[in-house]
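Schema walk-through. Below, the input block comes first and the output block second. Nothing else is stored per chain. Lengths vary across the set, and this one has 292 residues.
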Amino acid sequence: MTIFAAKTNKTMKNIVIAAGYATRLGELTRNFPKPLLKIGQSTILGRMLDDIDQIPDIDEHIIITNHKFAPIFQNFLLGSGPKTNPQGSGPKTNPQGSGPKIKSEGPGPDLTSGPGPRVKKPVTIVDDGTETNETRLGAVCDLLFAMDKLKIDDDMLVVAADNLLFFSFQEFVDFAHEKGTSCIMCHEEPSIEKLQRTGVVELDANNKVLGMEEKPQMPKSHWAVPPFYIYLRHDLDLVRHAIENGCGKDAPGNLAHYMVEHTTMHAWPMSAGRFDIGSLDTYYEAVEKYGK
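--- output ---
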């Protein structure tokens, strides 16, 4: 199989998958998105965007969310609250001020102006139109929805916004440039029980992915896969047709598993740790440990 040259498209979209309903956090996220829960003076998503916004390749942040939470993300990005386009005649942008330019796509209200947070790159909110956990599209379908809606034809950094990270995504992007392939992250996980609840990859000496299993009962390695991926432009056609060719819809790892079987991928071993916020207990632990 041919491996493309180490040079990539040099234009990369940051796509945040944030359309889930975080039912494991109970009342805390019944009417509020988990990525916007506060950790100290920032939020889970805010901390992530602050880092990714500094990467030169990134030219836009795209947040795919559901119809129920889309206005809350708009408030977060605008700071003082969204102004809407009552005619619904299409997306609006804010060309003024020092904050990000913000657009809204889909059934939700269109943004027209606002001060914006610290990120400087444009931000687009994509509303997938769902309103309940039972009608959610699933992470892979949400990614495809955003790609189709925005006609994305660039390299993509795809992230789930429910982790605190203690490294920079710049390292991951540099790794993808070096390898010239789509990439996933990995980290060593000594616990067999935890490996049985996540994706697990086998690697060769050059970190090429030889195989991937989702939630294996007998893991073949200790390399676990967190929900962070880079899909290069030359693989986007594979991504677009993944569902119709049998890829699972729900978890973002389903797409990574599919891609490993259909193209050359490498895995970047994380240079530092992460803190996964998946329950009320872990959220309050994150606030206690990292919010001060």
